[in-house]
Amino acid sequence: MILDAKIPDGPIAEKWEKHKFNVKLVNPANKRKYDIIIVGSGLAGASAAATLAELGYNVKVFCFQDSARRAHSIAAQGGINAAKNYQNDGDSVYRLFYDTVKGGDYRAREANVYRLAQVSVNIIDQCVAQGVPFAREYGGLLANRSFGGAQVSRTFYARGQTGQQLLLGAYSALNRQIAYGKVQMFPRTEMLDLVMVDGKARGIVTRHLVTGHIESHSAHAVVLATGGYGNVFYLSTNAMGSNTTAIWRAYKKGAFFGNPCFTQIHPTCIPVSGEYQSKLTLMSESLRNDGRVWVPKAKGDKRVPRDIPEAERDYFLERKYPAFGNLVPRDVASRNAKLACDEGRGVGSTGLAVYLDFADAIKRDGLDKVSQKYGNLFEMYAKITGEDPYQSPMRIYPAVHYTMGGLWVDYNLMTTIPGLYAAGEANFSDHGANRLGASALMQGLADGYFVLPYTIGDYLAQNPGPKISTDHPAFKESETNVRATIQKLLSINGTKTVDEFHKELGLLMWDYCGMARNAEGLQFAKDKIKALREEFWRNVKLYGENEDMNQTIEKAGRVADFLELGELMVTDALHRNESCGGHFREEYQTPENEALRDDTNFAYVAAWEYTGPNSEARLNKEPLEFENVKLTQRSYK
Amino acid sequence: MAGNNPNSTPMNLTLKVWRQKNAKTQGQLVTYNVKEISPDMSFLEMFDVLNEDLLRQGQEPVAFDHDCREGICGMCSMYINGRAHGPEKGTTTCQLHMRKFKDGDTIVVEPWRANAFTVHKDLSTDRSALDRIQQAGGYVSVNTGGVPDANEIPIPKPIADKAFDAATCIQCGACVAACKNASAMLFLSAKVSQLALLPQGKVERKTRVENMLAQHDAEGFGSCTNIGACAAECPVGISLDNIAMLNREYISAKATSDNIG
After folding, report:
1. Quick check: B70 contacting A, CB < 8 Å?
2. Which domains are seen in chain B, by residue range?
3. What domains are there in chain A, each with its CATH number?
4. B204-227: pLDDT as tens digits
5. pLDDT digits (tens, 9 = 90+) for B156-177
6. Any catalytic annotation for residue A330?
7. HSE-up (13 A, CA, CB side) for residue A542
């Protein structure tokens, strides 16, 4: 099936304006008749909820954390891009659009990306009006820095905690609507099923994580803003609770899943230190503004870094990519770190790390300046590793960070299920095969503040159906299924814990569907995942009962879904016989080891359709047309 | 990283952990032994090891709150050896590493204890009162759209920096747990200061401080007696100066308010 993305006609710069004029409006008095469910309270969810409530809709927001403010957007460090051109360095909406399409290795939808660049400027205005304390210059105006994949300084930041400050802005707007009674907040509540009536998304079934209570909620439209699925790898920079359950259960109800194999491996993370490791910690990409990445020139050089003379160091990113240097996009930086380690030139006790060195920056700018910019990140590094990065270089290694794939959405951010929307990292839409740094926050807030409020109105204005009681058989059936699945998990009483299964799955995904993939490995992983899933349902060990705070139930449900999603990711990676962005198939590379795309055969979004528990997902395609950006081999040299 | 630290010998520890089925039942400290704990583990990873052991033995794992494990989400909340987030200054439980302990140590782990925080289970507590304080006024009343260009609101860097210092609060509740009055004043003052310092927040500064303080008291948090345990235990270094600023804001609001009696 060829998918219609419903992209408005006309020149790219006019599409959004035109579309905003053409969408149908719900008059202010009628808005209060419509109920909207939003799952997830991160940047996309909180901003959408606040804005839709301001407009007059009745909104219910659900999150699994104990407070909306703890959604994982909170952990984003580096910044948010916007085409403000405050630095007068040649930035523009068009340049941000161009950089994002190129950075995504030409696998993103042009019209969406252009709109993202357009509304980026409004986001900064909105956040400042809310009291978000962005970094400022002495003249009182906003400061910027540069990020990977760009040659302009367009990144706004709030020390090393931009995500927290932006989320607190959206959370404050959400709180205001909660106080007004326009938003009803459901913390510690996890969505376990999507409920459909007459082919439309009409509600959800949830489990309360303290009482175990299973409950139904009905609405006229449902938004999934539940983040990414990087935890399928077990170790990632995601929060421990980040999961795929909401979007996966929507997938199983008919929402197509776009480009599941497009995963971002972030180059600058603290390396794995032991078996017990539960998560990986990112060191912000902004560090690459001043830190220099290197490994020893010689294999197996075990000297401490300060004993390795300048001439015996290989600053491989500066050497191979003189134009962008240490600020090449994330996929390029990650792959090159892996290459250096594969050659036996990795550092640290595991040999799976490269240096990120601030000695030159400290010499050039002084310790104070460096500590002002990066102090909190240096502290964090010291806390985790017990080493002082002011004295010796950081050791870093790539780690799973972000998933570009997600539910397929059209230009209106609606999935293939009428009335079901996906926003932020949960959708596949704007980053193609690789996301540029500081663009995730931009997309989350763009979707929530400035896109969904228009497009959901358009849907609601066109008869979304009457209010439905949660006594409707569709809700009862869904509740029964949810309860049965939990009972089944509790009753297995096997010998392996959920974490053991999760670790095994994660290792398979990392080894065969990580930074480099090949057909043989992917096929192997696919069979292994199937076997692991079969074992899970036979041999997993939970504890206790449903009517209780039971964290083994939470984890088991999420890992059960990861065990299915993992297979789909592998299937997607196996079918895409090309390399692009973060999807690097070893069979398809240039002589310089760069990703080799196949635009003739693969310039499309792969949107997978669920066909049943024991049958292969069906591939649907959305052809990508590039009318503005010329398809070229990406070069950062 | 393993092998890079002078003290990388695994440790054996005794844990005394608060176990409580739910808010309606009594709890007690239960003793567990954990073995082969790497000094490079985080405190929560040590709890992961304990929980996996318990589960394998058919016993109930310890419920605890955690999420980002990088010190920013504010979800983790253990009271360790009588201190909120444990012995290391300026550190959340998730960023506390076992190298801060010695082989053979006994570690007592309890939930946050405060009148306004009920125990959900074991080490997990209900901190929704903090959200409700935010809902009482921790915002600038602007709708999406229709705001001025960001650079039309210049803010002197020292003011912006001071507002930022206040805005770093992660709402973990350690200040409440550390306070013998179980007061949430440091938390509350951080939000009040941030918004009172910024031009965007000045418009509503009077009603904000009055409403947030009223909600604070209604939730059952205690009063501030300027002991300073809150600031000493705050993992992100929120300063006691904010409470001074809160008091000034409150008195000036009360003296001049035309909104609330």
Report:
1. yes
2. 11-121 (3.10.20.30), 128-256 (1.10.1060.10)
3. 267-401 (3.90.700.10), 473-596 (1.20.58.100)
4. 999 999 999 999 999 999 999 999
5. 999 999 999 999 999 999 999 9
6. yes
7. 25
